[in-house]
């Protein structure tokens, strides 16, 4: 995870090595982040790739946050979709 301020400056706040990309593992990573960061409730925006399962988990774990799709990953998906058709 990377935290970013209002000026676009980011820094890593958590590294997670997980066995699989399952819902349970993702939820545990977010639970750990919340335990390790007492100000987690200030998270307002989370940017993700197009994994819808991940979005559902984030919305449950960070109910005050808006989930946005990463511009880069959306454009990449569009290019791949156009190329395949």
How would you sum up this structure, described in words?
This protein has a domain at 43-85. The protein is built from three helices and four strands; from the N terminus they run ββαβαβα. It has helices at residues 23-36, 52-61, 71-84, and strands spanning 2-4, 10-12, 45-48, 66-69. The mean pLDDT is 89.
What's the number of helices? 3
Average pLDDT score:
89
The major beta sheet can be summarized as: 2 strands, antiparallel
What is the rounded distance between the termini?
Answer: 34 Å
| Arrangement of strands in the largest sheet | 1-2
Percent of residues in helices comes to 40-55%
Kindly name the structural category: alpha+beta
Write down how many β-strands occur, each being a DSSP E stretch of 2 or more residues: 4
SSE pattern, N- to C-terminal: EEHEHEH
Gyration radius (Cα, Å) is 14 Å
Question: pLDDT under 50 segments (min length 5)?
Answer: none
**Strand coverage percent:** 15-25%
- Note the overall shape: globular
Brief overview:
The chain is an alpha+beta fold and 85 residues long. Helices cover 45% and strands 16% of the residues.
List keywords for this structure.
alpha+beta; two-stranded parallel sheet; 85 residues
Layout of helices and strands, plus pairs?
Layout: E1 2-4, E2 10-12, H1 23-36, E3 45-48, H2 52-61, E4 66-69, H3 71-84
Parallel strand pairs: 3-4
Antiparallel strand pairs: 1-2
Helix pairs in contact: 1-2
Protein name: ZSWIM1/3 RNaseH-like domain-containing protein
Domain ZSWIM1/3 RNaseH-like: 1-68
InterPro entries: Zinc_finger_SWIM, ZSWIM1-3_RNaseH-like
